[in-house]
Amino acid sequence: MKTVSWVWSLNRNDQLLGAPIETVNTFHPYRFQREFPKVLGNDWHVAFITWDLVQTESPHGEVIVIVESLKRFVDFSNASVPVVVIPVIEMMRQDYQAIATRILSAVH
């Protein structure tokens, strides 16, 4: 099974810095977390994580996913796997298929 490490929110030393507004206020985040993995299929596990900015190593998995609005806070330039940046508009529209296409394109 392949793993997507989705950076859902950020913290520093276990103090929450926040989550992107489009994942909290614009739609139902729990529904997204429940429904989106089904679009990728059974070969994939999506781990929605809170990333601590003081960590020096990148998240584990075949691909790292981060929403555009959080990208400015995180430096994954040394990541050994592809990093997929999801545009805010795709999150707000809940465009599961476009998001899945970005992820699958990055690993193939």
Question: Span between N and C termini?
Answer: 15 Å
Shape: globular
Average pLDDT, all residues: 87
Tell me the quaternary state.
single chain
Q: Give the radius of gyration.
A: 13 Å
Output the number of helix runs.
5
Largest sheet: 5 strands, mixed
- Give the class from helix and strand content and strand pairing: alpha/beta
Number-wise, the strands total: 5
Task: Please mark out the parts with pLDDT under 50 across 5 or more consecutive residues, or reply none.
Answer: none
Please estimate the helix content: 25-40%
| Percent of sequence in beta strands | 25-35%
Please write the string of helix (H) and strand (E) elements.
EEHHEEHEHH
Structure write-up:
The chain has 108 residues and is of the alpha/beta class. The chain contains five helices and five strands. Strands 1, 2, 3, 4 and 5 form a five-stranded mixed β-sheet that branches. It starts with a strand and ends with a helix. The model has no long low-confidence stretch (mean pLDDT 87).
Give a summary of the structure in a few sentences:
The chain has 108 residues and is an alpha/beta fold. Helices cover 34% and strands 31% of the residues. The protein has helices at residues 21-24, 29-40, 68-71, 88-92, 96-107, and strands at residues 2-12, 15-18, 44-52, 63-67, 83-86.
List keywords for this structure.
108 residues; alpha/beta; globular
Secondary-structure blueprint of this entry?
Elements lengths: L1 E11 L2 E4 L2 H4 L4 H12 L3 E9 L10 E5 H4 L11 E4 L1 H5 L3 H12 L1
Parallel strand pairs: 1-3, 1-4, 4-5
Antiparallel strand pairs: 1-2
